[in-house]
Amino acid sequence: xxxxxxxxxxxxxxxxxEKIRSIVEEMSEKMNNDFKDKNPLFLCIxxxxxxxxxEIFKRISLLDAEISFIKLASYSGTHTxxxxxxxxxxxxxxxxxxxxxxxxxxxxxxTIVNTIEQIKAKNPAxxxxxxxxxxxDALQVKVQLDYxxxxxxxxxxxxxxxxxxxxxxxxxxxxxxxEKK
Length: 181
Ligand SMILES: O=P(O)(O)OC[C@H]1O[C@H](OP(=O)(O)OP(=O)(O)O)[C@H](O)[C@@H]1O
Ligand SMILES: Nc1nc2[nH]cnc2c(=O)[nH]1
Description:
Blueprint: E1 3-6, E2 9-15, H1 17-34, E3 41-46, H2 50-57, E4 66-76, E5 79-88, E6 98-106, H3 110-120, E7 126-134, E8 147-151, E9 157-158, E10 174-177
Parallel strand pairs: 3-4, 3-6, 6-7, 7-8
Antiparallel strand pairs: 1-2, 2-10, 4-5, 9-10
Helix pairs in contact: 1-2
This protein binds 1-O-pyrophosphono-5-O-phosphono-alpha-D-ribofuranose (PRP) and guanine.
C-alpha cells in the first residue's frame, strides 16, 4: 500500500516493515549482549509502543528478562498537548532493577522525561531508554537515549502502533502525512 487516508488526512509510505525489522533485530541483539547476566525489566509505554515492544521482547534471549506496561498519553490529533496523562500506572517493585523503557517515538521528549521521573522515584539500579524513532528537530527537553532505531524529520507519522486519533495503529509499515491538505 503506497498511500492511505485516515480521517481527513492522506499519508504516504515512509518506513517499510523490512526496515523496521532490521532495526529491531540489530537493537535486540545489542540488548542481549548489553544485559547478559542481568534480569532486566522491559517497560512498554502504551499504547503506541505495543508492536515495537512485542517484537523486541520476543528476540530477547535472556531467561530472566521480564516485561511490564504503563499507559501514558500526551498526543491529541497530530500535536502534543504538552502534558502527560497517566492512564495505567506502574505497580512493579523496581528497587535495584535494571529497567529498559521501550518507546515507539520520542518527539517533544515530554513523555519520556515524565516516564523517567516516575521510574527514578522507584529506586531502580539503572534506567536505559530505547526508542524505535526519534525526531531530533522536535525535541523540547534534554534527554539521554541509549538505543535509537532511526532519526526522522519532524513530520506526523502513523502505523506500526502509532495512531492518528485512534486509527492506523494496525498498519504494518509506517506512513507520513502528505503536504496536501
Ligand atoms: O515525545 P512526545 O512528544 O511526548 O511524544 C511521544 C509519545 O507520543 C505518543 O503517545 P501518545 O501520547 O500519542 O499516546 P498513545 O501511545 O496512546 O498513542 C508516542 O507513543 C509517545 O509515547
Ligand atoms: N501517531 C503519532 N504519534 C506521535 N507522538 C509523537 N509524535 C507522533 C507522531 O508523529 N505520530
